[in-house]
């Protein structure tokens, strides 16, 4: 699906080179889904808009139902189009996997790997992981999509990304590897000190307002706040973790953030554990179709090596 949360470490170049004619209509279908308009899809594929329109019309005729709803701003998938998207993506992924295996047999070590992660993993883990991977496999393309926990899992499920970082538990029957327990802390203005001087208790949390990211509240953060009886009326929301720290520093409320998110954030604040420890479990989720692709296997090995080297016995993999 088209998303504004996608950013590329290496901008993947879509071309028709290496795409069999039998899969061309599927490649066009995916390009239209990714770009949202026939014109932008045509530009990404280096073909004319009329070629894209003809290919989609032929595919709709072959399948027997419309795939897109056309409107002034572009196109959106019909319910039937949404239903076939994972299958089309799987076909393209298998075609790419075959190409990678053939290249490896011929000693080329080429291919692509599509990663998905939420903000703190994108900031703290992915730069050294990608740097190490590109040193070992410079010809393999690497792209990154950033999104929420649920968005990443969904994109892995439909095959739009190969490896995603999310939180346990993961819905759907996807290959999942627990990676790390990430403690959750209270973040307070500098002037605030818990009554016992070291940990946040019920009395410290009472009648305080909290600033969160909306996407965090349905997971482990909610469990911590529910434990301390923090009501919804005492919650406010910000756009990202750094904004939360800035607001806490200004005395506008308290924050609740995991250890990994705090690593590269800056702010004149205090960080305290809760009297009852809370943690989230970070995990790696892999698309089952592309799991055995050479580039995916190589990236998984680099990820696990980095985490074991960085965290030692704390790494769960």
UniProtKB/TrEMBL annotation:
It comes from the Bacteria. Gene3D superfamilies: Periplasmic binding protein-like II, Winged helix-like DNA-binding domain superfamily/Winged helix DNA-binding domain. The keyword Nucleotide-binding does not apply. This is LysR family transcriptional regulator. Pfam families: HTH_1 (PF00126), LysR_substrate (PF03466). Residues 27-78 form the HTH lysR-type domain. GO terms for molecular function: DNA binding; DNA-binding transcription factor activity. It comes from Lacticaseibacillus nasuensis JCM 17158. Keywords: DNA-binding, Transcription, Transcription regulation. One of its GO terms (cellular component) is protein-DNA complex. InterPro entries: LysR_HTH_N, LysR_subst-bd, WH-like_DNA-bd_sf, WH_DNA-bd_sf.
């Amino acid at each position: 699906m088209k998303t504004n949360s996608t950013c590329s470490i290496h901008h993947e170049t879509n071309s028709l080179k290496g795409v069999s004619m039998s899969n061309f209509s599927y490649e066009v279908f995916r390009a239209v889904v990714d770009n949202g308009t026939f014109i932008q899809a045509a530009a990404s594929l280096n073909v004319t808009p009329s070629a894209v329109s003809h290919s989609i019309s032929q595919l709709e005729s072959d399948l027997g139902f419309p795939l897109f709803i056309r409107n002034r701003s572009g196109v959106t998938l019909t319910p039937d189009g949404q239903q076939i998207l994972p299958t089309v993506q799987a076909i393209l992924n298998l075609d790419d996997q075959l190409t990678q295996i053939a290249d490896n047999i011929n000693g080329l070590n080429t291919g692509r790997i599509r990663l998905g992660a939420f903000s703190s993993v994108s900031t703290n883990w992915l730069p050294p992981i990608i740097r190490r991977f590109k040193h070992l496999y410079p010809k393999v393309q690497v792209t990154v999509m950033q999104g929420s926990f649920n968005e990443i899992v969904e994109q892995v499920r439909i095959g739009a990304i190969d490896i995603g970082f999310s939180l346990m538990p993961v819905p759907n029957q996807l290959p999942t590897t627990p990676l790390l327990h990430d403690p959750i802390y209270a973040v307070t203005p500098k002037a605030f000190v818990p009554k016992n001087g070291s940990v946040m208790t019920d009395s410290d949390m009472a009648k305080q307002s909290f600033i969160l990211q909306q996407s965090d509240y349905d997971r482990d953060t909610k469990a911590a706040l529910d434990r301390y009886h923090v009501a919804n009326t005492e919650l406010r929301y910000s756009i990202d973790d750094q904004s939360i720290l800035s607001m806490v520093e200004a005395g506008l409320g308290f924050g609740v953030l995991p250890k990994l998110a705090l690593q590269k954030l800056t702010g004149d604040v205090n960080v305290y554990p809760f009297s009852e420890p809370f943690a989230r479990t970070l995990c790696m989720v892999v698309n089952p179709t592309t799991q055995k692709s050479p580039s995916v296997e190589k990236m998984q090995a680099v990820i696990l090596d980095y985490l074991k080297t960085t965290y030692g016995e704390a790494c769960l993999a």
